[in-house]
Specification:
The complex is a heterodimer of chains A (about 250) and B (about 220). With about 250 residues, chain A is α/β, with parallel strands linked by helices. Chain A has a six-stranded mixed sheet, sandwiched between helices. A four-stranded antiparallel sheet of chain A has the order 2-1-4-5, with helices on one face. In chain B, helix 1 runs antiparallel to helix 7 and helix 1 crosses helix 8. Chain B contains eight helices and no strands. Helix content of chain B is about 80%, strand content about 0%. Chain B has about 220 residues and is mainly alpha-helical. The chains are: A alpha/beta (about 250), B mainly alpha (about 220). At the A-B interface, helix 2, strand 6 and helix 3 of A face helix 5 and helix 6 of B.
Chain lengths: ~250, ~220
């Protein structure tokens, strides 16, 4: 089933045109990886999907419902946008956990506010601790963020995003802020989510991971989608010169 | 003699304490509101608020007390403060609240602006409202960061209350000084110092306690 359609998204920050004309779509249960050098607009695209940036032009549809249309001003009010954000989850590069809450409370906070339940609510606690256990953090629920390693913090952040049951979970370079030995534990839980057919969009520099886990890989450069398709085609046999250049520059490092 | 002095000073200290606590009661929330004004994205709101902060922080509290107390009577021909002790106290309270709210607002602004934007964005993508993000995520982190500068201001306020005597609001130094004329003794003035020391000592302990309470997170 077609879950997301992005049509002709444009975004500029003053004089820089960050997204020039982005269109893509994905089906429910698919994993789409977006690769490309820094400054190519990948992160801005994710931020547009989560309405942290408002596109200047274009349409965003989820399950056929138009969430955003630059030609229809009624899709741009603050409260409307807040509701629409719930279709998407976002895991940040820098985790952004809430420092004054424990791992479990970080996961429970947003659902507790939305459902008007206290942190003592049995159902909410059960559901949230199950999510943390799924992330391999069953022993860490009572820890505060500063007591956790980067990899553990990022896994809490993934559980926190999942707790709101988004249609599409987005990752913005989820392992870029981690020490190399900690990236594995985060990639492992994302792989597990992919196995369970979680719909995900992943901005990443981990090429081997992108090739394994994705159904579609999108290569972006200078605000446009240069190439998209089967991960093995894009990563192993890119058709476009720009993709080849990017990949060979990566493998030289 | 000691007990007479002690009783008189206690009475004066009660005035000090009342001015101190009521100033905090009003200046802390007003400071938060002023800080929102000074950070507002609309210039038409932000600039007047910043102007007010400049005036208040740029002139002596002593001057503000005099202007606020005498100003309405002389300029408008209408003494809005009413006569007597109560009127003078209210005038002094207004001057203190306005003055301290402006200082507090700058501390709040610094605290609020020091919170990484990622904290707001994390709340936003979880579908939280602006109010929920502020009260459930941001506020406690701000409080943790501003405890040291706020405690500084609060301890300064304890001593600044003595300025209220310039419009004849009775406080502890006023009472202590009265013994110079009436009995020719100076030690009651030193005695007032002990009151200040004890009280600021208590406040130091209190703020240390708050800081420790908030040390469970970073």
């Amino acid at each position: 089933m077609r879950i997301l359609e992005v049509l002709n998204i444009k975004k500029d920050f003053g004089y820089i045109e960050v997204l020039k004309d982005i269109s893509f779509s994905m089906d429910s249960g698919q994993v789409v990886s977006i690769i490309g050098s820094s400054g190519s607009g990948k992160t801005t695209l994710l931020r547009c999907l989560n309405f942290l940036e408002i596109p200047d032009k274009g349409v965003i549809k989820v399950r056929g419902e138009t969430l955003f249309d630059s030609d229809k001003p009624d899709t741009r009010s603050e409260e409307a946008i807040r509701q629409k954000r719930l279709h998407f989850g976002l895991v940040f590069q820098s985790f952004n956990l809430f420092p004054q809450y424990t791992a479990l409370e970080n996961v429970m906070l947003a659902p507790s506010l939305r459902e008007k339940k206290s942190f003592n609510d049995e159902g909410l606690r059960k559901r949230s601790s199950d999510l943390l256990s799924l992330m391999g953090l069953g022993e860490r629920m009572g820890n505060y963020p500063h007591q956790l390693s980067g990899g553990q913090q990022q896994r809490v952040a993934i559980a926190r995003a999942l707790a709101m049951n988004p249609d599409i979970l987005c990752f913005d370079e989820p392992t870029s802020a981690l020490d190399p030995e900690l990236t594995g534990e985060v990639l492992k839980v994302i792989r597990e989510l992919a196995r369970q057919k979680t719909t995900m969009i992943i901005v990443t520099h981990e090429m081997a991971f992108a090739r394994d886990v994705s159904d579609v890989v999108i290569f972006m450069d200078k605000g446009v989608i240069v190439e998209q398709g089967d991960p093995k085609d894009i990563i192993d046999n890119p058709k476009e010169e720009r993709t080849r250049k990017f990949l060979s520059a990566l493998s030289r490092n | 003699m000691l007990s007479t002095v002690t009783l008189t000073l206690l009475k004066g200290f009660l005035g000090t304490l009342r001015l101190f606590s009521e100033t905090l009661l009003f200046a802390l929330p007003l400071g938060l509101i002023i800080s929102f004004g000074s950070m507002h994205k609309l210039k038409i709101l932000r600039l007047p608020v910043r102007f007010l902060i400049w005036i208040i922080r740029g002139t002596p509290l002593m001057l503000q007390l005099l202007v606020i107390y005498y100003g309405p009577g002389i300029i408008l021909g209408n003494n809005v403060w009413g006569s007597g002790e109560t009127g003078r106290f209210i005038a002094a309270l207004c001057a203190f609240v306005l003055n301290y709210a402006c200082y507090f607002s700058e501390i709040f602004r610094g605290g609020i602006q020091s919170i990484p934007v990622g904290q707001y964005e994390a709340g936003q993508v979880l579908g939280m409202t602006k109010g929920q993000i502020f009260f459930k995520v941001i506020l406690l982190q701000v409080i943790k960061r501003i405890v040291p500068p706020i405690s500084n201001e609060v301890i300064t306020l304890v001593k600044d209350t003595s300025l209220a005597r310039v419009i004849a609001v009775y406080e502890i130094i006023w009472e202590g000084q009265s013994f110079i004329k009436s009995a020719g003794i100076i030690w009651p003035l030193f005695y007032t110092g002990i009151f200040y020391l004890l009280f600021s000592g208590l406040l130091t302990l209190f703020f240390g306690f708050i800081e420790k309470k908030l040390s469970y997170f970073r």
